[in-house]
Fold this sequence. Notes:
Layout: H1 2-52, E1 56-71, E2 82-98, E3 102-119, E4 130-145, E5 150-160, E6 170-180, E7 186-199, E8 209-222, E9 225-236, E10 244-256, E11 259-270, H2 271-279, E12 298-308
Amino acid sequence: MKKIVLTIAATLAFVTTYGQTIDELKGAQAAKKDSIAVIQARVDALQGQIDAFPGWKKGIFGTLGANLSGSKNWYQQGTPNNSAGNIGITLNGFANLDKDKFFWRNSGNINAQWVKIDNKDIDTDDDSFNSTTDVFNITSLYGYKLSDKFAISGLGEYRTSIINNFNDPGYLDLGIGATWTPITDMVVVIHPLNYNFVFAKDDVAYESSTGAKILVDYTRKIGAINFKTNFSTFQSYKSGDLSNWTWINSFGYTFWKGIGLGFEFGLRGNRQEAFANALAQPGVDPALTIGEVDSPTQSYWLFGLNYSL
């Protein structure tokens, strides 16, 4: 009986001691978590100061979309034996320098897509990948600060394609005016003195002119999300038929080691390009003028895997 009492007493003492030890450990763990949270807050505050410090800021993110398919003896469709594919890639990069008296902002965008449809029952069809979307834009903006939000600025912007028709057409805008930076990472450029150089082999449809340049760019990274929107327009003083605009939006979400999902879509209005396309059609009236051509909104989009650096 005495042994049983001693055993029970020892067990109760162990349970009591174990319970106290667990409570003490939990209390110490909570204190450590509080300390970690305080330290992380300090680290985040220092990182914010580093990000706000004038100097070069660089970044790049892109999207890869791919879809490959094939069929054999799939008689329900018109081409039972075929292989098809669609591949697209987009890259967005920037390098910005911010000093007390001036800034220099540089950015670039590339979007290229290819598609193929190979009918295995026809030997004469094209079985290669053909370009469907081809975009290349680079921009360089220099500004001398009059205040924290306003600057006198000069802008150079070049837009073309790079796969099939490099610099045909190509657009180069050079101009001066003012830049407004209302919030961090947002730039609004208004240049009333701008010349729009247009390069093309067929100069019948294209013409350079003087006009006003307006550009709005907002590039931001919030946690795992990369976001960029860029609207660029040239308004010709000579004729509205020579004006053009382009709006490109890019999104990227990273969920594992720089890999995520990306989406990009672009819109464009350019009557000169619509006129050139109309002139290339068979049986077109040679007396056709640019003002007689419809200019629908051009568009492209790409969705796929995204990788951020």
